[in-house]
């Protein structure tokens, strides 16, 4: 039966070509958009994790309430003990302490007077400890534009854009003006080891990277860290595992009234991305829904046109005794074939587009000039196993729905009228 | 009845005649508080959310708009110096061996983590130059008879648009001060706990400053030693003195 229907579809192209093309076009759009949204969102999550929150983040309860201001006066103290505890309790995670700081970078002239100043946004990460995961997490070696990575104490990396703005070269001295964790003014001289370009607008505007131990000393935070970040070793964010990890850790300190007791948060809630995540999920579903609806309407129309064209055929089939239900089911089977063929073609073309955009990407740096969202300037699509199947559901459903709606007409045909109709 | 009315009116007129205007009181406060040259050794106890810190400093002040301060303790701050010359403020830190000008938004930063900002340090101490005053009430504060003055800024670009000060009626020193933004929001409070008389001037010996927008118990400021009308070398009020 299926073979018979398949042959019929191949031989009568007007029954298959137009619906297949429509389904394929819709599926191309679905597959590509899915991969594109996926890629953009993965980029946001990875950049946010790497440069801001980690997959999970430990801070004090007081710090967590004002985390957007990165209040170092509320930082974690005694971090060696806490780090040891985290490494012992959660050995599968990579743990690394960080301090985020703000301030001014002051470049002296030949008389050691201020030549130029600029506000900076600083990140201190552990770069001088053997085996520190930060080199890989921040991809520092690949981000170097001029000079070299940090190798010694009192060295810093500054963003290439900032270096250009300040007219400073690697090897020159800059004075950092910031605040200690007690609020006193902190000043320290650093040698510019090199300049960096992460390709993330929010970081590249005015970022400064300094070694963690150096900044502990400058900011008077001995044994202190603003936050301790935890990363999954495969560098992918696993929300279910992060949630379990967070609740396990927080249960230990649940009853502590100490505002400086540690608390853990996971990326989705911590970064303020939860609303965006929900929005993106809704957006994806809306795209699928709109596609399904539009395709159904188009295919219903195609089905109606086809039914009109096949009006006589249906009449003959009814007249020779074929059941209405059988005819209806055979049309649905035909539509499944059309849907499958369209989905297959659409998925292939959509995946090809998606792979191309995964390699090439699209530079949106110009649109992110004043943006604080952590996202790569080059947004790429990301093909995942789901990309191979995501187009099939709407592709098949649309054809089936379209045929099911247009095929209802079969049941309205009166057998008593058939011969009269066929005579005319 | 006419006699009672006459007595009431005349006593009111006499009372009004006894109360000087706000601007007159402010000028007297200014005469008491502002001295030409002084050297003082002070202590700031900063009551933070986590711990208390004590900062000690020695200051040389001249003509009310020039000041040189050297921090004496704790060891981390020792040797840090500040120079104020009219509207300019420089700081020197021995660890960097650099003189850095404090300007722009840095002026709003706290001094050594206290409840005072650099902007507070830069303020013209002659309040009559900045504010017009009126008496809005009287109150006994710290067991002293006080006038309550409301000060409104004469110009727009000022840190505190409105102030309320409690002025000791006999010693002409502000014992309490509330500082407000133009929006009406209370920003800082100042409470003088101890007053001493030095060379016919009443000086605050112990003051509690509180930045209302900041957590913590405020900053206590103590004057440990003070010399008025002291001879101060011109050299101190130069940038060269910062590196000495």
Structure explained in plain terms:
The complex is a heterodimer of chains A (424) and B (244). Chain A is α+β, with helices and mostly antiparallel strands. Chain A folds into two domains: 2-47 and 275-423, no CATH class; 56-231, no CATH class. Helix content of chain A is 51%, strand content 20%. Chain A is built from 16 helices and 14 strands. Chain A has helices spanning 2-11, 13-53, 61-65, 79-89, 134-137, 140-143, 160-166, 201-204, 212-218, 239-252, 267-270, 274-309, 311-319, 324-360, 392-406, 415-423, and strands spanning 56-60, 76-77, 94-108, 114-125, 144-147, 155-159, 173-179, 185-196, 207-211, 224-225, 227-231, 262-266, 362-363, 378-379. A six-stranded mixed β-barrel of chain A has the order 3-4-9-6-8-7. Chain A has a two-stranded antiparallel ribbon with strand order 2-10. In chain A, a hairpin with a 5-residue loop joins β7 (173-179) and β8 (185-196). In chain A, α2 runs antiparallel to α12. Chain A starts with a helix and ends with a helix. The mean pLDDT of chain A is 85. Chain B has 244 residues and is of the alpha+beta class. Chain B has a single domain (22-243), classed as outer membrane lipoprotein receptor (LolB), chain A. Chain B contains five helices and 13 strands. Chain B has a 13-stranded antiparallel β-sheet. In chain B, a hairpin with a 6-residue loop joins β12 (201-211) and β13. The longest helix of chain B has 17 residues, at 2-18. Chain B is globular, with a radius of gyration of 20 Å. The model of chain B has no long low-confidence stretch (mean pLDDT 88). The A-B interface holds A 62, 73-74, 104, 106, 108, 112-114, 175, 177, 179-180, 182-185, 187-189, 220, 259-260 and B 46, 48-50, 53, 76-77, 91, 93, 95-101, 106, 109-110, 112-114.
């Amino acid at each position: 039966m299926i073979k018979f229907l398949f042959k019929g579809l191949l031989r009568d192209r007007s029954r298959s070509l137009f619906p297949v093309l429509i389904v394929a076009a819709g599926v191309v759009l679905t597959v590509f958009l899915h991969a594109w949204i996926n890629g953009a969102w993965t980029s946001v999550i990875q950049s946010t994790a790497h440069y801001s929150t980690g997959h999970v983040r430990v801070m004090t309860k007081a710090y967590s309430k004002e985390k957007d201001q990165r209040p170092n006066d509320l930082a974690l103290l005694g971090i060696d003990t806490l780090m040891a505890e985290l490494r012992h309790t959660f050995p599968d995670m990579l743990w690394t302490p960080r301090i985020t700081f703000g301030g001014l970078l002051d470049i002296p002239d030949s008389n050691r007077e201020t030549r130029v100043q600029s506000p900076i946004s600083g990140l201190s990460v552990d770069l001088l400890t053997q085996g520190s995961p930060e080199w890989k997490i921040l991809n520092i070696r690949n981000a170097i534009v001029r000079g070299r990575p940090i190798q010694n104490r009192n060295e810093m990396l500054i963003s290439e854009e900032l270096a250009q703005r300040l007219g400073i070269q690697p090897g020159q001295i800059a004075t950092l003006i910031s605040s200690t964790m007690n609020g006193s003014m902190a000043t320290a001289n650093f040698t510019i080891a090199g300049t960096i370009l992460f390709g993330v607008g929010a970081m590249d505007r005015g970022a400064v990277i300094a070694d963690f131990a150096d900044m502990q000393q400058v900011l008077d935070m001995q044994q202190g860290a603003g936050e301790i970040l935890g990363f999954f070793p495969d560098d992918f964010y696993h929300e279910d595992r992060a949630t379990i990890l967070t609740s396990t850790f927080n249960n230990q300190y649940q009853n502590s009234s100490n505002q400086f007791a540690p608390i853990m948060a996971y990326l989705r809630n911590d970064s303020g991305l939860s609303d965006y995540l929900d929005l993106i999920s809704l957006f994806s579903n809306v795209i699928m829904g709109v596609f399904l609806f539009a395709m159904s309407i188009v295919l219903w129309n195609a089905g109606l046109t086809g039914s009109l064209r096949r009006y006589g055929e249906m009449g003959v089939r009814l007249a020779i005794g074929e059941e209405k239900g059988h005819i209806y089911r055979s049309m649905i089977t035909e539509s499944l074939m059309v849907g499958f063929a369209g989905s297959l073609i659409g998925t292939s073309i959509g995946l090809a587009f998606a792979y191309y955009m995964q390699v090439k990407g699209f530079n949106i740096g110009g649109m992110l000039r004043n943006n604080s969202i952590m996202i790569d300037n080059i947004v790429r699509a990301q093909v995942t196993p789901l990309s191979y199947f995501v187009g099939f559901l709407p592709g098949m459903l649309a054809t089936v729905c379209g045929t099911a709606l247009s095929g209802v007409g079969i049941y309205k045909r009166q057998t008593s009228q058939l011969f009269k109709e066929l005579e005319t | 009845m006419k006699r009672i009315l006459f007595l009431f009116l005349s006593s009111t007129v006499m009372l009004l005649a006894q109360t000087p205007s706000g601007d007159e009181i402010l000028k007297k406060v200014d005469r008491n508080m502002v001295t030409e040259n002084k050297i003082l050794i002070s202590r700031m106890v900063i009551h933070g959310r986590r711990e208390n810190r004590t900062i000690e400093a020695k200051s040389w002040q001249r003509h009310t708009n020039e000041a040189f301060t050297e921090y004496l303790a704790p060891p981390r701050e020792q040797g840090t110096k500040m120079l104020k010359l009219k509207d300019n403020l420089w700081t020197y830190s021995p660890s960097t061996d650099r003189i850095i000008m404090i300007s722009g938004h840095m002026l709003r930063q706290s001094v050594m983590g206290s409840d005072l900002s650099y902007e507070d340090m830069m303020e013209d101490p002659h309040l009559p130059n900045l504010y017009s005053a009126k008496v809005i009430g009287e109150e006994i504060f710290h067991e002293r008879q006080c006038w309550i003055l409301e000060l409104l800024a004469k110009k727009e670009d000022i840190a505190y648009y409105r102030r309320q000060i409690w002025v000791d009626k006999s010693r002409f020193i502000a014992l309490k001060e509330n500082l407000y933004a133009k929006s009406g929001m209370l920003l800082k409070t100042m409470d003088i706990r101890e007053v001493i008389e030095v060379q016919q001037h009443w000086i605050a010996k112990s003051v509690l400053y509180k930045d209302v927008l900041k957590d913590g118990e405020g900053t206590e400021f103590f004057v440990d030693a003070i010399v008025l009308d002291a001879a101060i070398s011109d050299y101190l009020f130069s940038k060269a003195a910062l590196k000495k």
